[in-house]
Amino acid sequence: MRKELKEKNFTEKEDDDGDIPKVDSTLVEYPDNINLKDMYYFLLAPTLCYELNFPRSARIRKRFLIRRIIEIVFLLQLMLGLVQQWIVPTVMNAVKPFNEMDLKRIVERILKLAIPNHFIWLLFFYSFFHSLLNLIGELIRFADREFYRDWWNSENVDYFWKNWNIPVHRWAKRHLYAPLRRKGYSSIQAAIAVFLLSAIFHEYLVSVPLHLFRLWAFAGMMAQVPIQYFTARFLHGAYGNSAVWISLIIGQPVCVLMYFHDYYVINMISATNSTTSVI
User: Fold this and answer.
1) Pairing mode of beta strands 23-24, 56-57
2) Which of 169, 175, 202, 236 is catalytic?
3) Integer CA distances (angstroms), 182 to 45, 171, 206, 238, in order
4) Virtual CA dihedral for 114, 116, 120, 121, nearest 10 degrees?
5) What is the Cα–Cα distance from 44 to 208, expressed in whole angstroms?
6) Would you call 169 a catalytic residue per the annotation?
7) DSSP three-state, residue 28
8) In which band, very low, low, confident or very high, does the pLDDT at 42 lie, cut at 50, 70 and 90?
């Protein structure tokens, strides 16, 4: 059964062509949503939370679509070029200082890797959360395009994690944080549970492809809990924002170098030693 929506649950905004896209205002009611079409739409939709009625746009904007495709192709090539020309040599040159535990050179390699790594991370953020998710949303006429908010203005870590990845934040709040709060757990306990699940997932994403279990990503995510407490309580305004950016710029290259070092030691050096012993 379908009927007209009385209220729209999202805000219409002008697109790149200067128009305000029209909205499909039909409403689906249970059990009409139980079908393969609805299931596959949810699997393709750039969201993790199921809704009986997703906001739908009435048309596909072709010029908007072309812009997003060009952005994805260009940014992907740019990121690949930067990784090959900037990241790979720096990471390879960091193996010897880590093996010798040369603290000064380790710090120098981390700082040398920090800027290109962060630049590539920003490019990835834009290409994924803005270009790719908007491309998917436009193709399937998914009208809720709030994939991120102004995380770059974060004055504490808590604000950053709530606003840089809206789909995941909404899922964690709806399916983990809110149920724990309803069961009587404190906000701190519920937040720690969210970070624990996120830490396990981050470690899984790194450990499985590398066949390497080292818990660096897990530790990095769980470290966000005390950092969040510290920045929220002691740092405010520009100082808090600076702390958030420093944690992003320095934290990621540390994890990258730690995983690369362990992977190199286990795979490259072990393979070399086994070859030498055979000879």
Assistant:
1) antiparallel
2) 202
3) 28, 16, 33, 35
4) 10
5) 24
6) no
7) strand
8) very high
